[in-house]
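User: Predict the structure for this protein chain, please.
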Amino acid sequence: MKILILGDVMGSSGRKALKKNLSNIILKNKIEFSVINGENAADDGKGITKDIAEEFFSEGIDVITSGNHIWDKDETTKYIEIERRLLRPANYAEGTPGKGYGIFLTKDKKYKIGVTNLMGNVFMRKTDDVFKIAKDIFNNMKLRKDVDFSIVDFHGEITSEKMAIGHFLDGYTTCVVGTHTHVPTADTRVLVKGTAYQTDIGMCGDYNSVIGMNKENSIKRFFKEKDAVNHFPADGEATLSGVIVDADNDTGLAKKINRILIGGSLNN
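Assistant: Here is the predicted structure, written as structure tokens:
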């Protein structure tokens, strides 16, 4: 099983890069299931719309995860209730619209894939205890019993919290990857018990920027200059950043994980 996971899509430049490259990535690498974090995909880099989500699905994405910006567009509250392939963090309070995890079929209906979206508790919006929620989910969604493979997108600010959840879930899920900070880390590996891991898989956006936002304006904001405006995305050529996980069909665990960087400033 080949699984593609791409980091936060940042504005229109990220969407353009996805449209240009996704089909070739899927074909070249024989990808059977693909996940992308879409919470920054809107033109202003905040939230996602119905039209953008459906564009991603039409291009070959199977599930869209998110994070702290999932509610930045009013229409998402209604859309996420009817589109189960768009996830919000599972540790939002009970009664929050949408779902934080689900079981999905590959396009050929051959395999069941569990996808879980979690959000860190440190320096993020107030949510329920992410470790307790993760424990509850994986007590009820077991590899080789309930699902054939399992993917976790942990949307968090700090590396220690991401690493801790990776080790906590090692052996219980095919992979744990971090999103949110928009900078790919160099710790890509398969953990001791067989779970593929990377602390942050980066963003699909213009890296000639400050985490995807216009760099000149961002610097002005740090200097508190009067002509600084609200953050807005950089619009240069984007790099698609993420990972490909090669999973064992018998165990559901990972055999290997490779980083991918395609196009733009970080092109391999």
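Residues 2-266 form a domain with the Purple Acid Phosphatase; chain A, domain 2 fold (CATH 3.60.21.10).
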